[in-house]
Amino acid sequence: MIRDAERTKKLLLKAATDEFAAYGIAGARIDRIAASAGVNKAMIYSYFESKDNLFDTVFNAMTSASLEQVVFDVADLPGYAGRLFDSFEDNPDTVRLTTWYQLERPHGTPLHAVVASNAAKLHELRGAIAAGTLPDRFEPVEFLALVRAVVLSWSTTVPELGPAVPKDRARRRAVIVDAVRRLIAFD
Amino acid sequence: MIRDAERTKKLLLKAATDEFAAYGIAGARIDRIAASAGVNKAMIYSYFESKDNLFDTVFNAMTSASLEQVVFDVADLPGYAGRLFDSFEDNPDTVRLTTWYQLERPHGTPLHAVVASNAAKLHELRGAIAAGTLPDRFEPVEFLALVRAVVLSWSTTVPELGPAVPKDRARRRAVIVDAVRRLIAFD
DNA sequence: GCTTGTCAACTAAAAAGTTAGTTGTAAAAT
DNA sequence: ATTTTACAACTAACTTTTTAGTTGACAAGC
Asked: Is B161 helix (H, G, I), strand (E, B) or coil?
């Protein structure tokens, strides 16, 4: 039997990511994570102190990866929206984990990486508004919230609407990109 | 001790609504609901079969009430968005319960009231597009998804953005109404 | 007295977390 | 080069805590 702590940790993190994305913090089962990783349960407590701490590790890793993946471009917000949409479609776990986090950790410590990334985006937006590249009808934080909300359109859709939602991913993407274009348009 | 089955049920439903909104299905605790309602735990099982069934009851009641409260007006989508926003701000539990439901009940039975209400909205939207009242760049379902997403802008905001979010509710409302106005504008 | 509402105490099962002991590995000692 | 030693990786079984759900006794109103 080979022994490889790093490999074991990776297996656990992968399994934990799937489990938390599917069931949330309260719904996740330590035994299920261990079984699905093919690793002994005690290893979880050896490498990650507790269930809560395991979730934090998973969430931080996911968030960092997600932030790096999608580059912000204040000169092309519709393009940014499209890339963000692609990222969410390719990694639906990201959206679910973030939603669980917001629901189950209403007072979680703000992640430094996210704070920094948002500050940078707000700063760029402020600059673009000042320079006249973007209209001044919305504040920077308002642009950011609106773009994010529009990108999440198909995720926040109620299940009852499900069957009517366009099957074609390209179409769903085009709707979002076009909507953002209209939000930032000069009259 | 006074005996009033209806009163007891109401107390339990109120407590259960708060509990499920705060902690979700997996995170909710039957003992906490009973304690917060000031009612014995066994009453829950007497009036509502199980934890799952209690959640369904809470969710159906909340959904029906929420649907009735906000009237749809295809001739004034920005106004509808504003009223929906007000409803969500006044009853934040509604948004949380719906989100929990989407996460924890991915294959829940579609609620008849919601299905009917959505069908009616889609039908009206189709009519408005055909009549030229609304632009034809988006399908009915796309309008609905976009409007809902925009209304939820401040709810889907990541916590790290929290401090930057406008404190003024009227301003947050105005942003949403204006955004919807732009989405339905003719060029 | 019979039905229905209420309650405290109980049960069974599930879940998180722990422990005592085993095994592989790699470096030090021979 | 082999053996020894030390430690990290690992395991199975265990303990403790939590939680959904139950029961049987008692009380209130008809």
From this structure: helix
Does B84 share its domain with B13?
no
One-letter amino acid for residue B13 of the chain: L
Please check whether residue A62 lies inside any domain of the structure.
Answer: no
CB contact (8 A) between residue A157 and residue B145? yes
pLDDT at B166: 82
Q: What pLDDT was estimated at residue A174?
A: 97
Asked if B27 and A104 come within 8 Å (Cβ–Cβ), the reply is: yes
Chain C bases closer than 7 A to any CB of the protein: 4-9, 15-20, 23-25
Residues on chain A touching B104 (C-beta within 8 angstroms): 23-24, 27
Residue B47 placed within a domain? yes
Range of the domain at A28: 1-57
pLDDT digits (tens, 9 = 90+) for A98-135: 999 999 998 888 899 999 999 999 999 999 999 999 99
Task: Give me the residues of chain B with pLDDT under 70, please.
Answer: 1-2
First to last CA, chain B: 68
B144 with A161: Cβ contact below 8 A:
yes
Could you check: is the Cβ of residue A2 within 7 Å of any atom of nucleic acid strand C?
Answer: yes
- If one counts the domains in chain A, the total is 2
Question: Who among B111, B146, B154 is closest to A150 (CB)?
Answer: B146
pLDDT at A61: 95
Min distance B29 CA to chain A CA atoms (Å): 11
DSSP A113-167: HHHHHHHHHHHHHHHHHHHTSS-SSS-HHHHHHHHHHHHTTTTSS-GGGGGGS-S
Q: Are B17 and B10 in contact (CB under 8 A)?
A: no
Residue B107, in any domain of the structure: yes
CATH number at residue B13: 1.10.10.60
Residues 6 or more apart whose Cβ sits within 8 Å of residue B107? none
Do A79 and A29 share a structural domain? no
Q: pLDDT by residue (tens digit) across A82-97? A: 999 999 999 999 999 9
Tell me, yes or no, whether A74 and A47 share the same domain: no
B117 and B29 in a common domain: no
Across the range A42-68, mean pLDDT stands at 96
Instruction: Answer whether residue A40 is part of any domain.
Output: yes
How high is the pLDDT of residue A1? 61
The answer on B83 and B34 residing in a single domain is no
**Separation of CA B132 and C1' D3 in angstroms?**
91
